[in-house]
Write a structure and sequence with these properties.
By secondary structure, the chain is an alpha/beta fold. It has 4 helices and 5 strands. Helix 3 crosses helix 4.
C-alpha cells in the first residue's frame, strides 16, 4: 500500500502519493478545496484508486511550535479525511514547506499562474517526503 501526503488549503489542496515501496513520492496533484466536502470526496477516491493505506496531513505550526487557528482547521480536515477513508491519518509538521516549495519553483522558473497551480502539489510532496523519511528511521 502507498502513503499519501496532503497540504490542505482554503482554495487548493496538494496531494502527493508514494510509490508502492513507500520510499519516494511518486505522483502529485492539486484538488480544489473551496468546497470541503468535495475535496474530501476527491481525496477518498484517490485513496481507493491508488491503494493508499496511510495519510500524512500537514500541520501548520508557528515557528515557536505553537498552534494557531489554521492548525485547528487542518486537524478537523484530517479527522474528516480519516472518517471518509477509514485510513490512519497522522499530522505532520509542515513548517516552511510552502516557503520551500516556492523556492523550488523559483529555481525552476515557475512564475505567475503556473506557480499558483503547482505550489500546493510541491508542498504536499515535501510533506510526504518528510514523513516517509521519518517512517524509514523508525
Amino acid at each position: 500500500m502507498r502513503v499519501m501526503g496532503i497540504d490542505y488549503g482554503d482554495a487548493r489542496t496538494g496531494v502527493a502519493i508514494s510509490d508502492l515501496t513507500c520510499t519516494i513520492a511518486g505522483s502529485a496533484v492539486v484538488v480544489p478545496s473551496r468546497n470541503r466536502e468535495k475535496a474530501i470526496a476527491d481525496i477518498a477516491r484517490l485513496v481507493q484508486e491508488k491503494d493508499v493505506g496511510e495519510i500524512a496531513v500537514g500541520l501548520p505550526r508557528n515557528m515557536d511550535g505553537s498552534e494557531g487557528a489554521r492548525a485547528q482547521l487542518c486537524r478537523e480536515f484530517a479527522d474528516a479525511v480519516a472518517a471518509a477513508t477509514g485510513r490512519k491519518v497522522v499530522m505532520w509538521d509542515e513548517r516552511r514547506t510552502t516557503v520551500e516549495a516556492h523556492n523550488i519553483l523559483s529555481a525552476h522558473n515557475y512564475h505567475g499562474q503556473k506557480r499558483k497551480q503547482t505550489v500546493d502539489a510541491v508542498a504536499a510532496t515535501l510533506i510526504l517526503e518528510g514523513y516517509l523519511a521519518f517512517r524509514k528511521r523508525e
